[in-house]
Write a structure and sequence with these properties.
By secondary structure, this protein is mainly α. The chain folds into 2 domains: about 30 residues; about 150 residues, T-fold (Roll). Helix content is about 50%, strand content about 10%. The protein has 8 helices and 5 strands; from the N terminus they run H-H-E-E-H-H-E-H-H-H-E-E-H. Strands 3-5-4 form a 3-stranded antiparallel β-sheet. A hairpin with a 2-residue loop joins strand 4 and strand 5.
Length: about 190
């Protein structure tokens, strides 16, 4: 094999140069077809926004402002679906009503959340919201609750207590979903698509 490579080295190099030139031509043709000119190399398009309860900074090299707008719209749409904080979100609706028939996307994310919960033996649990609220972790003055309060609250926590069949999700009374621990990961998947 080594001898063959040595004998054909110039041929191999010629093929590699030809492939490089084809890739370069395709890239140039694609850039000429875009409606908005990309930013010159080395000068990123950059924007900051508050999304999903945090500062999001988008920085694109060779991109344009339409791409950033698309990213922000995708994250905002996702937030309207999976945020427990927004009263009109899908998750808030499920938490309020106790059940829902899930959309295709929500079904996929719920399936992934439950698989993660199972694979971590509950270290990740999408039903942890009541316990988080009890501790007041996101409040101005968090407090350590009593053992009795924690024990009572734990009856409202546990992914295995969910009923999830044929896209219908049902929570036991008092349970709440919270995708906060995986929401930003889901956002990255959505942006990548």
């Amino acid at each position: 094999m080594r001898l063959w490579i040595q004998k054909n080295l110039y041929f191999i190099m010629a093929v590699m140069v030809a492939l490089f030139l084809v890739c370069l031509a395709v890239t140039a043709a694609h850039r000429m077809d875009t409606k908005e000119s990309p930013v010159p190399s080395g000068q990123p398009v950059e924007h900051q926004a508050i999304l999903m309860g945090t500062v999001v900074t988008e920085k694109l090299y060779g991109g344009n402002s339409q791409v950033i707008s698309g990213i922000e719209n995708a994250i905002s749409h996702l937030e309207q679906t999976i945020s427990w904080r927004l009263a009109d979100s899908v998750i808030a609706g499920i938490n309020a009503s106790g059940s829902a028939v899930l959309t295709e996307d929500m079904y996929l994310w719920m399936t992934e959340a439950l698989a993660l919960a199972e694979n971590t033996n509950g270290a990740f649990d999408p039903t942890l919201r009541p316990l988080i609220a009890l501790w007041g972790i996101e409040e101005a003055s968090p407090t350590v609750p009593s053992d009795k309060s924690i024990k009572e609250c734990l009856s409202l926590v546990g992914y295995e207590k969910l009923s999830f069949e044929d896209r219908k999700l049902t929570l036991q009374e008092g349970m709440c979903l919270d995708f906060g621990a995986i929401g930003k990961g889901i956002a990255l998947e959505v942006i990548a698509e």
